[in-house]
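Exercise 7 asks you to align residues with tokens for two separate proteins.
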Amino acid sequence: MNETPEKLLSLKEVCVLVSLGERTARRWLTTGAFPPPDARLAGKLLRWRASTIRTWVESQQ
């Protein structure tokens, strides 16, 4: 079974999806109100799976 790997989203892409400012998302990330990234590329590039963000959005409703 070959599953296509889920695309990793940048903070900017996530913020567009959830209508949230990047500064707010970063602040929420430091306080634990935003889900932690699924991956860190080159040590500082944060990336999230779409499924992680979907789950977080559903939990906020």
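Second protein for Exercise 7:
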Amino acid sequence: MENKYESLRETLRQRAKREFAPGAKFPTQRALMAEYGVSLATVDRALRELVAEGILMRSQGRGTFVREETELRKPAGNQIALLLARNVTCNAHAFYAEILFEINDRLSAAGCSFAYFYTDESGTPRELVRHLTDGGRFRGAILINRIPEELAVELKRVGLPFVVVDNRIESPGVCCVTGENEAGAAAMVEYLIARGHRRIGFVSTPLQTTFLERYIGYCNTLLAHGIAVDNAIVQRFFRYEEAERDLAKLLDCAEPPTAIFAANDTMGAAVYRVLRKRGLHIPGDISVAGFDGDYVGTQCVPRLTTVEVPRREMGRAAASALLRQIAGEKVESIVLPLKLIERESVFALT
């Protein structure tokens, strides 16, 4: 279904540009269904996105038309706001760079331009939304990561289409694009237990719902195996600038962990630095696992075993979901499957 829809959309995009004069009437949905042998849903979705991109326009009761050239040249109302939290994205640049690349690539192809806003530097949520809606410049917004829930509430209130990426906001009608964080963490803990580890430490920050979901997966999997969650080897308030001090809680306890599971690969790399400073070898003395599957883990020596988040797919899904909303389509949240990547940082005790 997805391949058919994407192929049809690109075919119709080229036809609109090459075969039809500006203002010309475009074939009906029924004609396109018969010509290409696809379903009504596939045709409708392709047309909606081309309308959102400004290639086509729909007139109620008259049909679909190729947009006039004068309309195509209009710059107003063609911007997308990309809203990020600076203090989160700077610490996870490797992860978000690929997501943002795909978002930019897909939305640029749709004729959109971008403006970046750091939510922790742009005033209150209401002030930021007022700025986005003044003058009608922005067609929609993409909210990256740790975004105040009040911001989503304000965007819903004013009716500006938006998508939340790598964060879950429990509010009806909000489209969130996330990974299966709980299941991914569970898979990693299962992997460690299968290799004889029962003292498994966990390191994260309290900033993100994604980390909370990973922590829940960690806890539930331990409990399912009859292993108590020991807070002595859990550090949920990890700070990069205080990595040595924050990890001392785990490493200096009466029964230190045989493995440490970091909530992302950047934290995993910080764990490596602290362990090396203590003269500990990975994985001979202690095993380390991460999450995200970005390039940081591949630069660790030994390379970090991790759970891979499909970042490019996440960016494409977010851009597509936003275009569909702009075209008037109702869009459900998207949860992407994750994949465990086995490398060299985990030692089998059994």
